[in-house]
User: Fold this.
Amino acid sequence: MNKRSFLGTTGLLGAAALAFANEERVGEGNAASLVGVGPYLQNVDDTGATVMWLTNVKCHSWVEWGETDALGKKAQMIVDGQVAANNTLNRIRLAGLRPGRRYFYRICSREITRYGPYKVEWGRLENSEIKSFETANPDSDALKCIFFNDIHDNLPLFSKLVEQVDGLDYDLSIFNGDCFNDPATEEKVLRSLATYNQGINAASTPVVYLRGNHEIRGAYSRQWPGLVDNPGGKQYFALSRGPVRFIFLDCGEDKADSHWAYSGLNDFEGFHREQAEWLEQEIVKPEFTQAKYRVLVHHIPIYGLNPDSFNPWKTLWGPILNRAGFDMSIHGHTHRAAIHPPHTAGDHNYPVIIGGGKKMGDGTVTILEVNKDGLSATILDAHGEKTEGYLVEK
Assistant:
């Protein structure tokens, strides 16, 4: 389904939904569950949130939601007058929300056993447990978010890294590229997606999945972007969370489009120019210029790479980024945790934070926090030891 063509609708629960109440309901997590990947929150801002999940069989799906656990409202995907059905990937927008408020929801999927031209035959109905989340609060002066990068489907490493932030009350999780390694099949990708979502409680805490160069490789790489819902529907975007304005860029591949490995199927040169034009417009918007802190995020660092590395972004994006007034940038790719203060790895005038790699001894989780002291980044290894840290004073 074209991710740009969906529209979430809200309203009171319809009579048809209420009529399902007496049907057999299967609990999520049951061996016979309809749900393959449970709900995860995308693109949560101050007035809306997207709920995504995948079913194991083709269904008609919707979200029941409200300001209490009594719910009372319904949202579903409408595409050109048709209610989305007979699909497995669900991306449903809850709109008209209020800033800084808690909302409750559950996902609902009804199996379609036969889809004929004049009659649809139904199977089981499954509702999840009721979950909750908070919308973004633009007036908040505090923020905690966690970053993962370069996990490369090493799920035992991810489990160890998650242990290091257990109990941390974070507002947002960000996977900064190469967490899905050369996606070959949907099954492989969804196995990692389900593990990541569960580890960071993505049903209640929003998550951002950013592409690295390895998400671009493999037979399923063209389908991978359908698993996310970014502001604006692109792989580059901006979002605000509390006192921070984030800019996310997509570096694409780490070699030229002409490299033999890409079989002539890449055009990232054009994609880089497209982002440069967008960036010029984004950094003059009030959301950016008036933000208390401005944080840049992309997988491949422009600064801190080997000098001989492929690096077209330094020439194309570097001058724009340096005059934008970023307070910090966060990256991965090198598999070596590092922090480069301004002007220590090139002509960058903002600190560059780089996370670790895919091996147990190299993996890291980065904690970004805004508090009364300022904006800080702390890099922890898989044993909870602090490897690097940096503070931008208030």
